[in-house]
From TrEMBL:
<dbReference type="InterPro" id="IPR010985">
    <property type="entry name" value="Ribbon_hlx_hlx"/>
</dbReference>
<protein>
    <submittedName>
        <fullName>CopG family transcriptional regulator</fullName>
    </submittedName>
</protein>
<dbReference type="Pfam" id="PF17723">
    <property type="entry name" value="RHH_8"/>
</dbReference>
<dbReference type="GO" id="GO:0006355">
    <property type="term" value="P:regulation of DNA-templated transcription"/>
</dbReference>
<dbReference type="InterPro" id="IPR041088">
    <property type="entry name" value="RHH_8"/>
</dbReference>
């Protein structure tokens, strides 16, 4: 199964929302005003990357222990049809992004996917997500 092929329109990032106290936000703005960062997002991304680097060993160990696939993995209708024909049931475990093609029916997803565990983002049609709701961990 070729799970590395990505649809061209797929985003490589997800938007998140955070709440900061006013003093923290003021300090962020001060650092931006002083030219340390180009904007608030730049500071927040840098801070997150620094924390991820600090905990890189724990991340690596956990990825190995949980047998997570790293990166972006796309499951096409053909991939799922091939799994069905082979009598295989998929255990999708991804750190990054997993996507299920828009032309995958809820019935095909239910017939081929036993479980989905994604740390990051799962992109699939709302019908497929609804059908697999009990299998998304």
């Amino acid at each position: 199964m070729n799970t590395r092929d990505l649809k061209p329109k797929m985003a490589e990032s997800e938007k998140i929302t955070i709440n900061l106290g006013l003093i923290d936000l003021g300090q962020v703005d001060l650092l931006v005003d002083e030219g340390f960062y180009s904007n608030r997002t730049d500071l927040i991304r840098t801070a997150i990357r620094n924390q991820l680097n600090t905990h890189a060993d724990v991340v690596r160990q956990t990825v190995a222990r949980k047998s997570l696939a790293l990166g972006m993995h796309h499951y096409s209708r053909g991939d799922l049809e091939a799994a069905l024909a082979a009598g295989e049931r998929l255990q999708i475990q991804v750190l990054g992004m997993a996507s299920i093609a828009d032309d995958v029916s809820p019935e095909l997803a239910l017939a081929t996917i036993d479980a989905i565990y994604v740390l990051g983002a799962l992109h699939a049609s709302s019908a497929v997500k609804t059908a697999l709701a009990g299998r998304i961990l």
